[in-house]
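Now for our specimen.

. . .
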Amino acid sequence: MRADGLIRGGGAMNSQMPFRWRLLTPFVLTVLLPVGNGRPAAAGVQGNPPTPAIRDSAGVRIVEYRSLRGARPLRVDVRPFLDLGGLRLDENEELDSRQPWLSATELANGTIVVNELTQLKFFDGRGKLLRTAGRHGAGPGEFNQTREVCRLRGDTLLVIDYSDGRLSLWDDVGRHLRTFARPGPIPLAGCLPDGTVIVQGATVRANASGDRFSEYSLNRLDGSVVRRLGQLPTPVYAGPIWLEPSIVAVGDELYIGDAKTFEVRAQSLSGHLLRIIRVMEAPRPVSVEAYRKLVEAMVPGNVLDSRRAATLARLMA
């Protein structure tokens, strides 16, 4: 989400890539803008949202929705303000559909930077490709697979490389400035405007319900720890479904969305829990038929029938 709009990814899945609950493999970025910014108006909210029960427990505000049935989502303008990617006459303007972590950030001058699989692409405010930066590789100014691009103060760009955890700094026109080694086990959850990154610890623990947690920390680019963030949920791989938490820093608060329980927690950067927002009625599970389709899409059709059948049976178990 941008301060003045929404950035949405959409597109087809790679047949050999697991379904990610957080984001489908995208190849088009659509920017939708809500009311109040002088651009096309949003349609607004339709219907009344459910009324939650709000209570305090040991200084923590708990917001509980019994059910979200009947709730109508926020609607924004059906006309996108800007589309990036998709099929283009110039293939350089397209976005690689193999990139499962496509994200974008807007610079102060209106330039939009997208992290493609192994490079950065710079677009102007009308969607015209300005330049690309970076290439595939393991050296300075190269990427194995980008995870996220973050805008730091002064429009410096920080790029997280998922494959080896390296971090690299770039200026606002795509010049490589510096590369840092992995600052921790995995700089998984993103970065803050001051250049610190949220890092997941190596040790994973599970509770009685099978939920998995790890110790997270806020680290500097050189790997030194600024502060501990406490035990937060970790990604869970379940066949073709990848349940990945969303951890986002907003101001001096951290919002943690658990993809398994659909519970959102807000805590201070010092680790103090502030709010819990949850839905009491369990979300609708993925049907067996939908799960089977996901499994079948994962396994290539050009393998031996016996091997493919065995793989499908294992993933469906």
User: Anything to note?
Assistant: The mean pLDDT is 77. The chain is about 5% helix and 40% strand. The first helix runs from residue 288 to 298.
